[in-house]
Amino acid sequence: MEDLAAIAATIRKARKEAGITQADLADLAGTSERTVRAIETATGNPSLGAVVAVANAVGLRMAAV
User: Which of 9, 11, 56, 58 has the most CB atoms in a 10 Å sphere around its CB?
Assistant: First the structure.
């Protein structure tokens, strides 16, 4: 769960630094505002594709290790 919380915090921080709302990010990522909210709070069960799309939309890249 710590990894999920770290991803959520990183995405939320990047969005805020970019000065965009959750709704804006959802539009950029091609997903719903509810999904963005779930990702940023590490709740629900968003798909990996949605997480990657949201991360990419704020300039972050995800990599498997």
Answer: 11
